[in-house]
Description:
Layout: H1 2-8, H2 18-35, H3 39-45, H4 52-59, H5 77-88, H6 92-112, H7 115-127, E1 131-134, E2 150-154, E3 157-168, E4 175-181, E5 191-197, E6 203-208, E7 219-230, E8 234-235, H8 241-277, E9 279-280, E10 283-284, H9 289-317, H10 323-347, H11 359-366, H12 376-388
Parallel strand pairs: 1-4
Antiparallel strand pairs: 2-3, 3-7, 4-5, 5-8, 6-7, 9-10
Bound molecules: flavin-adenine dinucleotide.
Flavin-adenine dinucleotide binds at residues 100, 133-136, 141-142, 166-168, 211, 219, 368, 371-375, 377-378.
Amino acid sequence: MTTQHSELTPQALTTLSEDERLFRDSVYEFADREIRPLVREMDEQAKIAPGLIAKLFDLGVMGIEIPESYGGGGASFFHSVLAVEAVSRVDPSIGVLVDVQNTLVINALLKWGNEEIKQRYLPKMAANTIGAYALSEAGSGSDAFAMATRAAERDGEWQISGRKLWITNGNEANLFIVFANVNPAEGYRGITAFLVERGFPGFTVGKKEDKLGIRASSTCELLFDGCRVPRANVLGEVGKGYKVAIETLNEGRIGIGAQMIGLAQGALDHAISYTRERKQFGKAIAEFQAVQHQLARAATELEAARLLVYNSARLRDQKQPFLTEAAMCKIFSSEVAERVASLAVNLFGGYGFVKDYPVEKLYRDAKIGQIYEGTTNLQLQTIAKQLLG
Ligand SMILES: Cc1cc2nc3c(=O)[nH]c(=O)nc-3n(C[C@H](O)[C@H](O)[C@H](O)COP(=O)(O)OP(=O)(O)OC[C@H]3O[C@@H](n4cnc5c(N)ncnc54)[C@H](O)[C@@H]3O)c2cc1C
């Protein structure tokens, strides 16, 4: 009986398989060795260091869920979450690059791409091609389906006209999933997802935003002036782009949860090592009980946030409903990230307020978690809808 019971008892959410643990540790070791020395310069220059992206491809974190038959890692969504968390512990800007690539772009290609699309794009995505996901516009953010970008069929191909705003990886990407309405009279039922390559005629990448945080991650405007897209580049069905957008974002926001717990862990790491070193009143400030309690509370909140993120990712991999859990994990982990980064700034004192030390950047970076892939208010709306019907 005892044996039977233990066989049926699920593992703790934070218990990683050998493979998951080795993967996470190798990504973190890479981030610590290769990314950490570049963080400040990339933040100042608002640019990813040359050569870093190629190393991320070599590491195998840019095509995590792509099946091995297309040249990818053949791993799970949970692996993507572990990679985003591990990278974001060092730099949330690079964390979001890895996140958008895996949890939005590759995820959508795997789920909605036909075999021809998969064969054409997945090997490139695993090898050297960065993806971007273009839904938002100047006039439509939370109300994304009110988009003004249009597509019309002409001479056997599609032509897209309009502008997208805030597109992560805009500078680096070569493949863009672009949402446009082909039949505005039908409202959201006209929305269609298109695969647009950087070189397609009529497509240009516009202005890059100058941001508060995650500054090394590019956020760009995209301009479409009768951009010509082959018919074979419709992702999913014409008029079903709203499903591609909703379902991909439902999963993608677990990735943002992962980015935020990684950020919070990074801030806590810095706070622990600094408070052990810094002496006031003749002893390390970590010896003051008030400081110990602040660190303990931060660690407790981080553990709760991590459980929400891991649970959502495990549910998704097990094909169980996860919509509410994903919304909860994004809200909570982004708030925890802001609180823990804020505490780290406080515990560094004056040194926390200057750029010579790493925590003010994490405080700036944390803010985005409550905004992109659906603001906190929109996540609350999703949860309330589940509660109240
Ligand atoms: C750095 C960065 C990267 C981004 N990357 C991408 C990307 O790669 N691809 C992409 O498509 N988009 C991207 N975005 C866009 C992002 O998803 C939107 O900014 C976000 O969805 C909010 O839209 P908005 O900015 O238009 O704000 P609005 O929708 O105008 O919201 C403003 C405020 O009103 C509140 N609000 C709006 N509607 C309601 C409501 N019904 N009830 C209660 N409150 C409401 C919101 O919560 C928010 O506080 C990015 C944005 C940033 C800043």
